[in-house]
Amino acid sequence: MSDIAILVVEDEPLILLDLETALQEAGFLVVGVPNAEAAVEAFDEDPSKFAGRLTDIRLGSGESGWEIARHVRRGNSSLPVVYISGDSADLWGSEGVPDSVMIVKPFFLPQIITALSTLLNQQHPTAANGGEPSH
Amino acid sequence: MSDIAILVVEDEPLILLDLETALQEAGFLVVGVPNAEAAVEAFDEDPSKFAGRLTDIRLGSGESGWEIARHVRRGNSSLPVVYISGDSADLWGSEGVPDSVMIVKPFFLPQIITALSTLLNQQHPTAANGGEPSH
Amino acid sequence: MSDIAILVVEDEPLILLDLETALQEAGFLVVGVPNAEAAVEAFDEDPSKFAGRLTDIRLGSGESGWEIARHVRRGNSSLPVVYISGDSADLWGSEGVPDSVMIVKPFFLPQIITALSTLLNQQHPTAANGGEPSH
Amino acid sequence: MSDIAILVVEDEPLILLDLETALQEAGFLVVGVPNAEAAVEAFDEDPSKFAGRLTDIRLGSGESGWEIARHVRRGNSSLPVVYISGDSADLWGSEGVPDSVMIVKPFFLPQIITALSTLLNQQHPTAANGGEPSH
Amino acid sequence: MSDIAILVVEDEPLILLDLETALQEAGFLVVGVPNAEAAVEAFDEDPSKFAGRLTDIRLGSGESGWEIARHVRRGNSSLPVVYISGDSADLWGSEGVPDSVMIVKPFFLPQIITALSTLLNQQHPTAANGGEPSH
Amino acid sequence: MSDIAILVVEDEPLILLDLETALQEAGFLVVGVPNAEAAVEAFDEDPSKFAGRLTDIRLGSGESGWEIARHVRRGNSSLPVVYISGDSADLWGSEGVPDSVMIVKPFFLPQIITALSTLLNQQHPTAANGGEPSH
């Protein structure tokens, strides 16, 4: 029913697989990437493809999830952003972007589905849609 | 666990089937109708049966989803209302009812489940229940 | 992905089983107990184990769900609390705790999943996590 | 500090004077009009002048406050709208516009100031401003 | 413009005077009482007179602000309740009522005005008004 | 009634004076500073003195309001932050901090009072208070 996707950024392959599987089973289309460089590249190639972003904070040697979030928000100032983290969660108040959700590890998978859905539903009608005709 | 249902109004049979299937798998009871006339008739026959309403905006030749929403809200002023639309979404600010959710096409199915659940949970306890005894 | 659980308190065995099954299928870990005494005992044994609580109001001869909620909030002042009830729902305004959700019977199971997920996501990062290292 | 104003629509001269005085003392610029015709004319002449609208529901023989609100929202889909009414308040659920506030008579004047301020602050940055340079 | 009032409960005469003055200057009608007994008596004599309640937690030898709040909510399940306290504030999560505001000392007076106004504006239209005719 | 203050950062002396006067008349204690350097110095000298921060974005040659906000949030992760700006407002989605308010120029002074009061009232009781005894 849609050609839009959620960009999932997670450097641990098994956790990335878990997140992709859970989101797909719930009904989301997902593009998973393992690091910040791939996340920025995927987003910049086609910003209109991504309806939201889910990201771990620590991503190995490159940029952190905080920086990727600011990058994508410069391209789309109201794009839904969900962070997941353990020990970086208390930095959300200073490093996070407005109207984002911080999910603290350990967490339950439905929290992610509800966080993404709620942020998607709060977007202003005109902002979330390029105006393509449909019923 | 309930004898209440969500009224789903959608004039495209395949999309209606998708919506009905997704809502039922999530745990909702659903009554699907293909146009405004059937929607109003189903609602007026037993208003207390419906705990919420999900509607497309454009519904062929009859009334639009905007008008059906106002009709059901005149019968139950806090009934959860979720609209789905593509090109009519920017009219939500002038044609929608208060405390409703506009989901813009293209969308993901969990957005609808979260929108309905959130609106149902926000209802005032005394308003959502006819007072039938239960534990 | 987590060693935390939702404490579910319900004195009717069949409804308890329904709730446990629905929450587990959605991705929650669940500890179900049949009465207030068992609920308080389970919580006091390891308060940090429980990320949230779902409770019926009427629980046979012991304490009610209102009292259990106050008990667990004295141990963790921001623990997510979801009540389900039928005829006691109108007492929520005087007997419930702040930032809780009252789900009125009859209800749909996704309402519970959304209520728990939303409350979990609204917790302050520092409050929801004991600080264990993770990515 | 601003050349924008709140449009106040009220057909009883003494109440209109009360509202104008209270809003001006609080720090708002106000344009008061006594009926629907004057409200629509003032708005259509310069839609960008008005940052919000406060309206009574019953306005004598012309259009009601419900219709004026839909009219201004067709010109600016996120314009803050605050209704005040006594016996028409229960129609808000079917006749009101989304993200509006219904203030029920009798009321206290700070409710109006808080309602307008809260709605103005919730607007998306890009929507509320024509982009004129300032610090 | 109204015959309704805010019930203010505070056992320190100078603070009570400050609160009464600030609320009256802002546009509220106020009934101030120095202890729990007088608060309950004033409320029970004419529950429909009070549109909201502001209370200190510690009130000398009688009942606390927590108990008064539950008492008035049993009479009106959605009455706006604002607590002010210093060292009792961390008990709000277990002892407060839903949809109330806890203002922590030290505080600024506009916090109280905004808290009361916001809660009054969030009430459902039909709940806040006895239906007396007005424009 | 309090020894806490709002830190106001604005490089135009006349606007700073307007903001200080309006906040003081409303009941706030205010410390006004003309640039980023003075803002950081005042905050670092006594972080517990400041209950909230109001800042212009462009502040001459030094750091911007975005950077000051991140600085103070690193010291107090839930400190209320209100930004005012004209042409920088559309950067709030990428440069702002979570749970902050962006007020777009031109604006009305009550918007600032409501924004600060609302953020102060939303803080968790235990976070907003150092625990000093009071009634």
Walk me through this protein's architecture.
The structure is a homohexamer of 135-residue chains. Chain A has 135 residues and is α/β, with parallel strands linked by helices. Helix content of chain A is 39%, strand content 19%. The first copy, chain A, contains five helices and five strands, in the order E-H-E-H-E-H-E-H-E-H. The first copy, chain A, has helices spanning 13-26, 36-45, 65-75, 92-95, 109-122, and strands spanning 5-9, 30-33, 50-56, 81-85, 101-104. The first copy, chain A, has a five-stranded parallel sheet, with helices on both faces. In chain A, helix 2 (36-45) packs parallel to helix 3 (65-75). The model of chain A is unreliable at 126-135 (pLDDT under 50).
What features would you highlight for this structure?
5 helices; 39% helix; alpha/beta; 135 residues; homohexamer
What kind of sheet is the major sheet of chain A?
5 strands, parallel
Distance between the termini of chain A: 12 Å
- String of helices and strands of chain A: EHEHEHEHEH
Radius of gyration of chain A: 14 Å
The best one-word shape of chain A is globular
In round numbers, the mean pLDDT of chain A is 90
**In percent, how helical is the residue content of chain A?**
25-40%
Number of strands of chain A: 5
- Structure class of chain A: alpha/beta
Low-confidence stretches of chain A: 126-135
Strand content of chain A: 15-25%
Q: Describe the oligomeric state of these chains in a short phrase.
A: homohexamer
Output the number of helix runs of chain A. 5
